[in-house]
Amino acid sequence: MEMKKSISKRRIGVIFTLISLCSIVLTYEYYKIEQRDSTFIAIEIISIIIFIVSFMLTFINTGLWKFIHKPLKNLDEREIALTSKSLRYAYAIFTVVTLMLLLYFAVTFTPLDVVLVAALILFAHLLPASIIAWTEKVI
Amino acid sequence: MEGRKIYNRIAILRKEKSITRKELADKIGVNFQTIGYLEREEYNPSLDLAFRISDLFKLPVDLIFSTEPLTPLSQLLTK
């Protein structure tokens, strides 16, 4: 891991990444259902740009993304403990968020669409790294 | 469950041996950042890692690690 950023900067990066991911999905949903306005396209493009930039700065440049996807045999005991903890939290958060969303879609008879599912896949991959970025003081 | 804090003399012993964190990490088979965590006493090593460290410095485990704040080795020697 080569995480030199301060915890506050990493936390801001995580917030921007997750909010922009939500924004991508919500804007797409509004664009599809409500009105096909060019403002929504502009918001969607801005959200995608913010997502890419914050993702690169928070997860790629810091080495977090590479770290969380390392095979177990390449980790030492502290790193195994750290990834296990982050995966445990990520599993709990992802399960609750996904099941709540599924419940909402089931209750409202709304069909799931590809953007939401893709965002959820991305969210599942982002969560463990986000938890490490959020909790680790010095790395 | 939050464990007890384990104090250690890794930083001083490493400096005495004039080896870098990276060299120490390679010798005991961990990432060099883990050495930083150990030296700052932010991570309690497993028994296996503690023995690897004590083997490397050729000192008993209880001289390197303690559950009580450690007194400097120089003070121990003058006693």
Write the topology of this structure.
The complex is a heterodimer of chains A (139) and B (79).
Chain A: H1 7-33, H2 38-60, H3 64-68, H4 77-107, H5 114-135
Helix pairs in contact in A: 1-2, 1-5, 4-5
Chain B: E1 7-8, H1 10-16, H2 21-28, H3 32-39, H4 47-57, H5 61-64, E2 65-66, H6 73-78
Antiparallel strand pairs in B: 1-2
Q: Any overview of this molecule?
A:
The complex is a heterodimer of chains A (139) and B (79). Chain A is 78% helix and 0% strand. Chain A has one domain. In chain A, helix 1 packs antiparallel against helix 2 (38-60) and helix 4 (77-107) runs antiparallel to helix 5 (114-135). Chain A is mainly α. Chain B has 79 residues and is mostly helical. Chain B contains 6 helices and 2 strands, in the order E-H-H-H-H-H-E-H. Chain B has helices at residues 10-16, 21-28, 32-39, 47-57, 61-64, 73-78; strands spanning 7-8, 65-66. A two-stranded antiparallel ribbon of chain B has the order 1-2. In chain B, helix 2 (21-28) crosses helix 3 (32-39). The N and C termini of chain B lie far apart (37 Å). The chains are: A mainly alpha (139), B mainly alpha (79). The interface between A and B is small, with 9 and 14 residues.
